[in-house]
Amino acid sequence: MKCALPIGNLHRVALLTIFLTSIVSILPLFADDLGVEDGPVVPYPEGYRAWRVIKVRIVGPESSQFSTRGGIHLFFANDKAVEGFRAGRFPDGAKIVEEIVRPKEGDGPFKGTQADGARVSIDVKVKNEALFNRTGGWGFDTFKGDDKVSAINESIRGRCYACHTSQKDRDFTFTEMRQ
Ligand code: HEC
After folding, report:
1. Per-residue pLDDT tens listing for the chain (179 residues)
2. How far is the CA of 1 from the centre of ligand 1 (A)?
């Protein structure tokens, strides 16, 4: 009887198996480059300065957070986030930005005043239930200064989510929209 799979073919099958196995085993080495490890990206929130200001906080020298987060904190919400604040739950597409800026001393007629100066950073939350299902439906990110490239990695993102989890009943959001 003729063998259905001659020995030559067996060789090829074996070689192919070794080849495929080695490709699969080196794939994780490239995972970082491909962004696989990094999870879904949060895009820079272009134009957020035109959104609604929902809250302002000044973190002054007496605050324990002053050395790391001192400055004027401005909170912005896009239309979908405003909807979310009203409903108590945020729809996909909702975006909230917490911006920190240094106070800038005024002069001339503005002597004795402080305005919003250099941008220190923005913390961003973007709602997309499917994309960010591992972190409560929210994508977290930070951008430093005027940089539009993320300043944090996956492990810091995990810390954002971990702390915001205390507000799970409020859709992971600490802030309330001032009426
Ligand atoms: C240790 C706790 C903690 C960690 C870690 C944390 N946050 Fe927050 N976050 C808060 C608190 C508290 C507020 C409310 C701040 C206020 O009222 O001034 C807040 C507010 C926010 C807001 C405004 C919307 C909201 O949920 O109230 C955004 C956006 C935000 N954080 C993003 C981030 C990002 C991005 C990270 C990680 C880089 C992060 N947070 C890490 C505690 C935390």
Report:
1. 444 555 556 566 555 555 555 544 544 444 444 343 567 889 999 999 999 999 999 999 999 999 999 999 999 999 999 999 999 999 999 999 999 999 999 999 999 999 999 999 999 999 999 999 999 999 999 999 999 999 999 999 999 999 999 999 999 999 999 88
2. 74
Tokens of 29: 């080495």
Separation of 164 CA from ligand 1 center, angstroms? 7
Q: Who contacts 30 (Cβ-Cβ below 8 Å, separation ≥6)?
A: none
Angle at 69 between CA 64 and CA 73, to 5 degrees: 115
For ligand 1, residues with CB inside 6 Å are 57, 73, 75, 96, 98, 123-125, 140-142, 152, 156, 159-160, 163-164, 173-175
